[in-house]
Every structure is written in structure tokens, then in C-alpha cells.
């Protein structure tokens, strides 16, 4: 098993020590596959939770998928900015690409990708968006953009 992982967590300037406890970020990654590449960034506020399970091969940034990405996304990167986002991703199979961005506050994302050569990309901006998706099979392409601004 080889996992390439980058993790960044930061709290906004001006947050007091008492507030920092309630704004803690949580990241759980389970990788039982191989050659998966993933970057997770949790910043600008806090209270984020990300649970990601990788059980396949060449998923994330390692995937060679067809299809354009939304301009603000990077293949294999999942970013949570703002306050109180929750994301649960389960990626299995081979050569599946994914990218995500949650900005604002209180978004929820739950996604499953199984199969091969799939691409899923999600952007949630504003407050309180919920996205749930499931991709099973070969060469599926999913794009979700939610905004409440």
C-alpha cells in the first residue's frame, strides 16, 4: 500500500484558545489500496470533518480520467474552507478521479465511487448545502455545483 497524503489544517487569525477547542478539524483516512494520491486541506475557520476511505488502485490525483475539471478544482484535492463542513467519501476500484471544495459554512457531502475510470467533482459554496452521490461502473462523469450566495 502506498498513500501519498498532504494535510493542512489552520485556524483563522483572531481565534482565541477557548474557541479553538470548538473549531477543531477531524480527518480520518483509511487506505487499503495502492498508488492512491490525495491532498486534504482544512482551513479558514474550523469544525470540519472529513472521512475518506480508499480501497482501490490509482485513485485521486493518480487517476488518468477524461473530462474537464471545474476551474477552481485540482484532481485528487479535497478542500474545506470556512466553518463546520462534513465530508464522507468512499473510493474503490481503479483509476477514479475526484476533487472537491466546500466554502462557507455547514455543508454536507457523502459520496461513493466504485468501478473504473470515473470522475466526480463537487463545489459547495454559501451555507448549508447537502450533496449525496453514488457512482458505480465505468467512465461515469459527475459534476455538482451548489451555491447559496
TrEMBL record:
GO cellular component, one term: pilus
Similarity annotation: Belongs to the CsgA/CsgB family.
Protein name (record): Curlin
GO biological process: cell adhesion
Name of one Pfam family that matches: Curlin_rpt
Keywords: Signal
Signal sequence residues: 1-20
Amino acid at each position: 500500500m502506498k498513500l501519498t497524503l498532504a494535510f493542512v489544517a489552520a485556524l483563522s487569525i483572531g481565534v482565541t484558545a477557548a474557541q479553538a477547542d470548538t473549531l477543531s478539524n477531524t480527518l480520518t483516512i483509511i487506505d487499503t489500496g495502492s498508488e492512491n494520491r490525495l491532498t486534504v486541506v482544512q482551513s479558514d475557520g474550523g469544525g470540519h470533518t472529513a472521512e475518506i476511505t480508499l480501497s482501490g488502485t490509482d485513485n485521486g490525483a493518480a487517476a488518468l480520467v477524461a473530462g474537464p475539471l471545474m476551474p477552481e478544482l485540482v484532481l485528487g484535492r479535497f478542500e474545506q474552507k470556512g466553518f463546520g463542513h462534513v465530508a464522507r467519501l468512499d473510493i474503490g476500484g481503479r483509476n477514479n478521479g475526484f476533487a472537491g471544495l466546500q466554502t462557507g459554512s455547514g455543508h454536507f457531502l457523502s459520496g461513493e465511487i466504485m468501478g473504473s475510470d470515473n470522475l466526480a467533482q463537487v463545489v459547495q459554496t454559501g451555507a448549508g448545502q447537502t450533496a449525496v452521490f453514488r457512482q458505480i461502473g465505468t467512465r461515469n462523469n459527475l459534476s455538482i455545483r451548489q451555491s447559496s450566495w
